[in-house]
Every structure is written in structure tokens, then in C-alpha cells.
Design brief:
Strand order of the largest sheet: 2-3-7-6-5-8
Radius of gyration: 35 Å
Distance between the termini: 86 Å
Structural class: alpha+beta
CATH topology of the largest domain: Threonyl-tRNA Synthetase, Chain A, domain 2
CATH class of the largest domain: Alpha Beta
Number of helices: 8
Helix content: 25-40%
């Protein structure tokens, strides 16, 4: 077994150790040491990173025999050599803040709501706990957030110790231990007692702040996303920057942003209504112009047009306006990222527009379908002259 220095000193960032074994882990070089300050991934907390003898440690895992395996970027010297270890302190302290914050948050939910934490994950950006409750009222969440930050600002001691099974029975644990034998206890003074093998701060004040960021309802459970310490500060800075930028652009105070957005939404809704009305009017004018310029074909006229930048919906609306008002056959195309096609005819016109569309699509390398009086399709983008030649040759 490897002596785990982080059990007694989470603030240990450098140490000396002897390489006791060279191994291969997932195809890469790795070593086992007689002692280590590197925390291995377990209990929802990711592994430490850093360096051994100047070689990057990319992961740390626990083997079945309880040996701590350090996965390396490149091999170390032979077994038996002493190496110097350096912990990535920024990563370690961040994990200490998040993990200790999780203990306080889970204890607060238990105190105020009598709900249990059934899962914990310390992620790279946010951390989560899963609670055995399907929904949470927002006022309760606010109360929980207030309680945990009160505990932080009181700067309570956080202590760790190993206890025997006899002493364990006398403790009021938030959850039972998952291991046999001596159990490591993490205690937040007068607030939480919990078995845990992770790294933690020495006093709650080092967490700085806990912020509940998001609730995700998952059947019978609720996932709570939270941020502690430096992560909460980074989140505040990012959101504050966005708020200030928006307030500057809208020339209002940040406290007036909700009213400004509501006003803009109302204006945008009215503009969309006006735009629809204007487009409908323009559509009638455009349809009349196309009909007047169309070539007569017996009892009806043929409208053949290649337009630019019209989406399928716009082509369809224009075609329907034409066939609804006039006795016509309509062959419309629009060039953009793709070639959009819409063929239509009035009910009295004896043409199969679906068949004509299939012919056009075959020649342009596209596909589509519809009914004898209205069909739509698309093809790869092509130049206007080629598309115009294809649809002009159909009737």
C-alpha cells in the first residue's frame, strides 16, 4: 500500500518518494511510489495533476491492491530511484473548495429539507449533487444557499481523522461509510460529520462563496449544479460583464434591463406583425407583375421565374398567390446555398406539376415531390442561366 500524505495534510504540494514499481496503465507508462501527495480519482473527485521528477502526471488511480498508480506523460528512471513530486496547487485547491462546499451543501439540504444526497460529481466547470427529491421550491433553494454561505463566513474549522468502528457507532453521520475498518471522518464544526477520503480546506472561510447555479429535474431526483470559491467568482465576473455590456448598449441601468428587454420584445412583435402585412401586400404586387409579364398558353399563362435568396416558404406563398388569383402555371426557382423549386398550377390547368418537378430535379441533381397542382423540391446550387434553361424547357 502507498502512504497517502494528503490524508493528513491536504496542503502538501511537494514531497520526496521512492519509485517501488514501474507499470503500464492503459498502454502508457506509470509508477507506484512508497508515499504520495497525489490524490487519486475517487468518490466523485477527480485526480490531482502535477509532476514527478519533472515528468507530467496526467492521472492518478487506485489499483485493486490499494497501490496508488501515477500515470505519466513519459517514463521515469528505473525502480528504486527517489523522485520529487509537485502537485498542481491551483487544481488541488479548487477541488478542496468544491468538495468541502459539497459537504456543507448536502448537510444544509438535509437540515432544511430532510433530503439525502445520493450522488456527487466534481466537474471541470461545475459540480453537482443529486438529491432524492423530485422537485425543489425556489424559496427553499434560496434558504439553503443562505445557510451554506453563513457557515462559510463563520469560518468554522474543518477537521479530518480516522476513527475505529467503536467510535464510529457513537457519531451522528450524515451517511454511513462505504468501507470497512478504520474510517476517515471529515467534520465541519457543529454542522456536518461525514465519512470521506477526499481533500478539504482547513476552515470554511477558504471556500469563499457557494452559489447554486441550476436545478435539473430527473424523475424522482433533482440534480443541483453549484459553484464554489474561484469558480463562483469567475461566474460572477462573466455574468457581470454581460449585464454591463447589455446595459451600455441599451443605455439603461442594469436594474432596468428587464423592462428594457420587455419593451424590445413588444417592439419586435409589432415589427413582425407589420412585416408580415407588408410582405403580403408586396406579394400581391409581385404576383400581378409576374402574371402581366407571363407568356399566354391558350386559356392560361405560364409564369417562369428564377429568383435569388428566396426560401421554400416564400416561393410557395408566391406560387399560391398566383394560382389563387389567376389562371396560370407557375414554375419558380430560387438560387442560394441550394436551388429551391416550387411548381404550381390553377385547378383548371391540365398539367402535372409533380411530374414536371421530378423532371427538373433529375436534370439538376435534386429531389422533391408533391401533388399534380403543387410540388416542391431542391437541388444543389447552380448558376441562374442553367436553372432558367431547365425550367424554360419544361413547358
Amino acid at each position: 500500500m502507498t502512504e497517502r500524505l494528503y490524508y493528513t495534510d491536504a496542503y502538501c504540494t511537494s514531497f520526496s518518494a521512492c519509485v517501488t514499481e514501474q507499470v503500464v496503465w492503459d498502454g502508457g507508462p506509470a509508477v507506484v511510489l512508497d508515499r504520495t501527495a497525489f490524490y487519486p480519482a475517487s468518490g466523485g473527485q477527480p485526480a490531482d495533476q502535477g509532476a514527478l521528477g519533472g515528468v507530467a502526471v496526467v492521472d492518478v488511480q487506485v489499483r485493486e491492491d490499494e497501490a496508488v498508480v501515477h500515470i505519466l506523460e513519459s517514463p521515469l528512471p528505473e525502480t528504486g530511484k527517489e523522485v520529487e513530486g509537485e502537485i498542481d496547487w491551483t487544481r488541488r485547491f479548487d477541488h478542496m473548495q468544491q468538495h468541502t462546499g459539497q459537504h456543507i451543501l448536502s448537510a444544509a439540504f438535509e437540515r432544511l429539507l430532510d433530503v439525502d444526497t445520493v450522488g456527487f460529481h466534481l466537474g471541470a466547470d461545475v459540480s453537482t449533487i443529486d438529491l432524492n427529491v423530485p422537485r425543489l421550491a425556489l424559496d427553499i433553494v434560496t434558504s439553503v444557499e443562505g445557510l451554506v454561505n453563513q457557515v462559510i463566513w463563520e469560518n468554522r474549522p474543518v477537521t479530518t481523522r480516522f476513527v475505529s468502528s467503536d467510535e464510529l457507532a457513537s457519531l451522528s453521520l450524515r451517511r454511513p461509510p462505504a468501507v470497512d475498518g478504520p474510517v476517515r471522518i471529515v467534520e465541519v464544526s457543529d454542522f456536518d460529520v461525514n465519512p470521506c477520503g477526499g481533500t478539504h480546506v482547513a476552515r470554511t472561510g477558504e471556500i469563499g462563496l457557494i452559489r447554486i447555479a441550476r436545478l435539473d429535474y430527473r424523475g424522482d431526483e433533482t440534480r443541483v449544479e453549484f459553484l464554489c470559491g474561484g469558480r463562483a467568482l469567475s461566474d460572477y465576473r462573466a455574468k457581470s460583464a454581460v449585464v454591463n455590456q447589455l446595459a451600455t448598449r441599451l443605455t439603461v441601468g442594469y436594474w432596468e434591463l428587464d423592462q428594457a428587454v420587455e419593451r424590445l420584445q413588444g417592439e419586435a412583435k409589432q415589427l413582425r406583425t407589420d412585416l408580415r402585412r407588408t410582405r403580403k401586400g408586396l406579394l400581391k404586387v409581385e404576383a400581378a407583375e409576374f402574371f402581366e409579364a407571363a407568356a399566354p398558353r391558350g386559356a392560361y399563362r405560364v409564369v417562369q421565374r428564377v429568383l435569388e435568396g428566396r426560401d421554400p416558404g416564400e416561393l410557395r406563398a408566391l406560387a399560391q398567390e398566383l394560382v389563387g388569383r389567376f389562371e396560370v402555371a407557375v414554375l419558380l426557382a430560387s438560387v442560394g446555398e441550394r436551388t429551391n423549386l416550387c411548381f404550381a398550377c390553377s385547378r383548371g390547368v391540365d398539367l402535372d406539376m409533380a411530374a414536371l418537378l421530378q423532371e427538373a430535379c433529375a436534370r439538376l441533381g435534386g429531389k422533391g415531390g408533391g401533388q399534380s397542382y403543387l410540388a416542391q423540391g431542391s437541388a444543389p446550387a447552380a448558376d441562374l442561366a442553367r436553372i432558367d434553361a431547365v425550367i424554360s424547357d419544361l413547358i
